[in-house]
Structure to design on (422 residues):
């Protein structure tokens, strides 16, 4: 069997959590492969809303196996808070959640280093989520990291060693060290982790594949935040592209099946960094307001703009996307016309390639399409799509060379329309 990968094609928050939850019944296993609690994946069903950060979005559908893969960075304190909130809502995870022993730990001092690094960058700050993601991955690559499996033996010594190194760095940045209550909470998280099945996930996952199990890998962040291919340095510290699923789970490239790419019918970005189609006007405010574009983790206002096909084609290519899912279509319900960026003009020359540098010289070239002026949130079948929505989809499919298989028309699980036509 193969691993299907579902990932974001923009700057994150495309609606990955919702679609993973919708697709989970077709899979035996759901697994995260990169990122950490910088993610905020929202699911809505039965009038309830849940936001998941480190736990895969497959945990609400029956007793499917959920795995936190080796490519993830895990903060035990935040994990405990997340798992306990779910337990309080009647969702016990112990029997269905597995955690890779090779996943790296986010220490309290990583969070502080994240903050200190941002302060040191001044105006050039990335606008991180402040969850210690960059410093934790830095330690992983620099071979200083601590892994989940480390908590099982002699951990206090390993922790104190790592903390001492971080304190030198913090002192150099004139940043205070970790308060005792925060550290204590983190240690409670470490103890809490021990009640879960800590596994050699690369063996576990490959054995599941050998047994014929279907696996869905859930991406976090989005392709334009990828550390290699995103708008560097305004990116996250992991490979968010499909290849990240191979290293983040321990599966061979040939084991990848479908690659499901998710995009919003428009575009958003949270934090700093270039965003060619950003609208800093009333239209941008309207998208933000109707789309409720505020970060699920940080509450920060997301920057909004029109759909960018240059960036989307780039993302499709990097990931080998085989099918597309269009999210938040209903947010465009009330627009007379909708713009779509089809190319960039850079120093007078038009290009459809995503450039090395995205700066103020990159000017989006738009085509304008008619809006559908219809309330999509109540539509449950493709048959009822207004002609202008079909036209929008046809236009995108033609420009992207791929079918849009699913159209999302609201935040609820039920507001998801699978298209048979394509
Ligand atoms: P993720 O990080 O990719 O899982 O996405 P987020 O959960 O951070 O952000 C997506 C937001 O849009 C959440 O608040 C969802 O509840 C909401 N959402 C998802 N799909 C739709 C949709 O089709 N329409 C509307 N209006 N909201 C949606
Ligand atoms: P989900 O999975 C949107 C952004 C941050 C910042 C940059 C680096 O919910 O789509 P980091 O804390 O990772 O070092 O921040 O990446 N960012 C996200 N933006 N959605 C996310 O996750 C994000 N995770 C990180 O805003 O610009
Ligand atoms: Mg999110």
């Amino acid at each position: 069997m193969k691993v299907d990968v579902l990932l974001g094609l923009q700057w994150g928050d495309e609606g990955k959590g919702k679609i993973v939850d919708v697709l989970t019944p077709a899979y035996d296993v759901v697994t995260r492969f990169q990122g950490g609690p910088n993610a905020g994946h929202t699911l809505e069903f039965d009038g309830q809303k849940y936001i998941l950060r480190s736990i895969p979005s497959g945990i609400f559908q029956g007793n499917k196996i959920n795995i936190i893969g080796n490519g993830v960075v895990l903060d035990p304190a935040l994990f405990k808070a997340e798992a306990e909130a779910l337990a309080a809502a009647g969702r016990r995870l112990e029997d269905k959640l597995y955690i890779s022993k090779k996943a790296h730990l986010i220490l309290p001092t990583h969070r502080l280093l994240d903050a200190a690094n941002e302060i040191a960058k001044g105006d050039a700050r990335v606008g991180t989520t402040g969850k210690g993601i960059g410093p934790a991955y830095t330690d992983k690559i620099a071979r200083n990291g601590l892994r989940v499996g480390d908590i099982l033996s002699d951990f206090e010594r390993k922790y104190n060693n790592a903390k001492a190194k971080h304190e030198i760095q913090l002192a150099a940045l004139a940043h205070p060290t970790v308060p005792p209550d925060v550290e204590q909470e983190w240690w409670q998280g470490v103890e809490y982790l021990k009640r879960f099945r800590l596994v050699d996930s690369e063996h576990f996952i490959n054995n599941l594949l050998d047994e014929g199990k279907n696996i869905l890998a859930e991406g976090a962040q989005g392709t334009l935040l990828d550390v290699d291919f995103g708008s560097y340095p305004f990116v996250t510290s992991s490979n968010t592209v499909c290849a990240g699923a191979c290293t983040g789970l321990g599966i061979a490239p040939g084991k990848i099946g479908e690659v499901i790419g998710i995009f919003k019918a428009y575009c958003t970005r949270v934090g700093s960094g270039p965003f060619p189609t950003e609208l800093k006007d009333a239209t941008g405010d309207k998208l933000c307001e109707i789309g409720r574009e505020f970060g699920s983790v940080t509450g920060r206002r997301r920057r909004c703009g029109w759909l960018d096909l240059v960036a989307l084609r780039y993302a499709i290519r990097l990931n080998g996307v085989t099918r597309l899912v269009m999210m938040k279509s209903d947010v465009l319900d009330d627009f007379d016309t909708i713009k779509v960026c089809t190319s960039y003009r850079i120093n007078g020359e038009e290009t459809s390639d995503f450039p090395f540098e995205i700066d103020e010289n990159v000017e989006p070239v738009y085509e304008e399409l008619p809006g559908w002026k219809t309330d999509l949130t109540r539509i449950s079948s493709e048959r009822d799509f207004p002609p202008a929505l079909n036209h929008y989809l046809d236009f995108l499919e033609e420009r992207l060379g791929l079918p849009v298989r699913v159209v999302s028309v609201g935040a609820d699980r039920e507001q998801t329309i699978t298209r048979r036509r394509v």
